[in-house]
Design a protein that fits this description.
This protein is α+β, with helices and mostly antiparallel strands. About 25% of the residues lie in helices and about 15% in strands. It has a five-stranded antiparallel β-sheet with strand order 8-7-6-5-9. The chain has a two-stranded antiparallel sheet with strand order 1-2. A hairpin with a 5-residue loop joins strand 6 and strand 7. The longest helix has 20 residues, at about 225-245. The radius of gyration is 37 Å and the shape is flat. The mean pLDDT is about 85.
């Protein structure tokens, strides 16, 4: 039964061949998904019988140069009986003196600018007063109020501290979700000195272990400066009354954002 079927199949194929001698070109590697074939690169190497084919790529300029290299040494005749008649001499002699310090070479960077000269961009959805959801760090999931963008491109946000314990801090726009909720902070005056330098981490002194004073050397702990506290109060005292005017906004800022089962982030409207 099977053999008969096979024969019939062959016949059909023969009939088809008579009609259409030109074979339709198709890849030997069927596509499973876009960009992914059924067979790996090494399997295709075997399927295409690449090992039988001898490839001779055209010679590159570098290879040509290598071939046409000028000789590095010359053979010069040398006078005298015991000097062997000739000597191999380098064409390009090494320098007699070397600089004591290495001269740093600037690398070619093809129009790459340093970070300080980068153009700062800001997502269109983030405007002063927008409520953002922080996604990373110790305050992840918390909702904060965006104040302004700093010179480094980082965002200056505040919780207000009294509501959700988020102080004035910098955050990256990549790691926040901008919501459609906005707080009107047009009348809020921010202190001028809230810059990147203001938020720069201070180096903490690590204790050096010396003989005899094992118990004296305490590791220096980070403490919030008075300056920070006053600035926090200055900003929050202006924002809190605005938040209190809007019903349920205080509770909204206090709540933490989290995904539960069956909630898909791509279907949410923030």
């Amino acid at each position: 039964m099977h053999a008969g079927g096979h024969m019939a199949g062959e016949k059909k194929a023969g009939e088809k061949k008579a009609k259409k001698p030109r074979k339709h070109h198709a890849s030997r590697n069927p596509v499973l998904a876009r960009g992914i074939g059924k067979y790996s690169r090494s399997a295709m190497y075997a399927r295409k019988a690449m090992y039988k084919r001898k490839y001779d790529a055209p010679e590159t300029k570098i290879e040509k140069k290598k071939r046409e290299k000028a000789p590095a040494t010359l053979t010069k005749p040398v006078g005298g009986d015991k000097n062997g008649g000739n000597r191999v001499v380098k064409v390009r002699k090494m320098p007699r003196y070397y600089p004591t310090e290495d001269v740093p070479r600037k690398l070619l960077s093809h129009g790459k600018k340093p970070f300080c000269q980068h153009k700062r961009k800001l997502r269109a959805s983030i405007t002063p007063g927008t409520v953002l959801i922080i996604l990373t760090g110790r305050h992840r999931g918390k909702r904060v109020v965006f104040l302004k963008q700093l010179a480094s491109g980082l965002l200056l946000v505040t919780g207000p501290l009294a509501i959700n314990r988020v102080p004035l801090r910098r955050t990256h726009q990549k790691f926040v979700i901008a919501t459609s909720t906005k707080v009107d902070i047009s009348g809020v005056k921010l202190p001028k000195h809230l810059t990147d330098a203001y938020f720069k981490k201070k180096r903490l002194r690590k204790p050096k272990h010396q003989e005899g004073e094992i118990f004296d050397t305490e590791k220096e702990k980070y403490e919030v400066t008075e300056q920070r506290k006053t600035d926090q109060k200055t900003v929050d005292s202006q924002i809190l009354p605005i938040i209190k005017k809007v019903p349920q906004l205080r509770g909204y800022l206090r709540s933490v954002f989290a995904l539960s089962n069956g909630v898909y982030p791509h279907k949410l409207v923030f």
